[in-house]
Amino acid sequence: MSFFWFLFVDLNNTIIKYNEFMSLSKNQLKLITRLQQKKYRQKHKLFVVEGIKVVEEFLHSSYELEMLFSTENSFSHLDTFIEVSDQELKKISSLKTPNKVLAIFKIPEKKFIKPSGLIVALDGVNNPGNLGTIIRLCDWFGVKQLICSNETVDCYNTKVVQASMGSLTRIEISYTDLQEYLSCISIPKFIADMEGENIYKTKLDSEAVLVMGNESNGISDSIMDIVDTKVSIPRFGNCQQTESLNVATATAIMLSEFRR
C-alpha cells in the first residue's frame, strides 16, 4: 500500500491528520457511516459525495475537499487521496453498486442571499430524490437561489447529493423560517396550488419567488396567507382522476413557463 495522508476524528471529535502506511481505518469507517445522519453532518460540518462524475463536479467547484477514497489511482495527485479495495469501498458506500470513488467535502458557511431574479422556495419538501431533482431543475433553468424551509430535507443528505448530479455546486441553498422570509421580501410571490389560476394564462414575472409545497400536504396555511398569486397546472386527460403531480415534475413545468 502506498504512503498517504489520512484523516480521522478522535474521541474528542477533533479531526486529526496522520501519516501512515494503511488504507481505510476504523475511525474513518465510523465517521463516514455517521455522516449518513444529519446531526453528524452538522456536528462535523462534512458530507459525503459518491461517484466519479459527481465527485469531479465538486472537485472543480468552490467546495473544499476533506478526504477522498478510491479504488483507482486517477485521484492520486490529491493530497488527501486514500486508495481502498473494492470491498472497503462497499463498506463505506451507500450505493448498491459503488462507483469507484467516495469523497468527503466540507459544508460551506451560510451566505446571505439577496432576493433577486427568479427564486424557488420549498415549503417542507421531505423526499431526498425530489429535492435533488429540484436542485438540478434550478441549475437547468438558471435559477441561482433555492430557499428551503427548516422542515425541508437536508440538501447534504447523501441521496439529495446523488440525485442533484453535481448541480448542488452551482445553486445557492439557504434554510430559513420561510414564512418570515416571504413576509420580508417585496418581489411577486407565486405558489403552486390545485385551485390556482391556469399557469398557461397567468402573467409571470421574471423576478419572482415560486413556492412549492410538501409532497403530501402541499403549501402550509401560514404560507398560503402571505402569497400574492396561486397558479396551477391544468389537467388535460379525459378521466381527470389524478390527484396531483409529483412536486419535482410540477416544478419543472412551472419553471419552464416562467422562462418561456
Features:
single chain, 260 residues, alpha/beta, 60s Ribosomal Protein L30, Chain: A, Alpha/beta knot, 2 domains, 6-stranded parallel beta sheet, 4-stranded mixed beta sheet, 12 strands, disordered N terminus
For this structure, the quaternary state is: single chain
Largest sheet, in brief, is: 6 strands, parallel
Number of helices: 9
- Kindly provide the radius of gyration, computed on alpha-carbon positions and rounded to a whole number of angstroms: 21 Å
- Mean pLDDT equals 89
The CATH architecture of the largest domain: 3-Layer(aba) Sandwich
Residue share in helices? 25-40%
List the uncertain runs. Answer: 1-6, 14-22
Which range does the strand content fall in? 25-35%
CATH class value of the largest domain: Alpha Beta
SSE pattern: EEHHEHEEHEEHEHEHEEHEH
Overall number of domains: 2
User: What is the tally of beta strands?
Assistant: 12
Structural class: alpha/beta
Q: Strand arrangement, largest sheet? A: 9-8-7-11-10-12
CATH fourth-tier homologous superfamily of the largest domain: SPOUT methyltransferase, trefoil knot domain
User: According to CATH, what is the topology of the largest domain?
Assistant: Alpha/beta knot
Distance between the termini: 56 Å
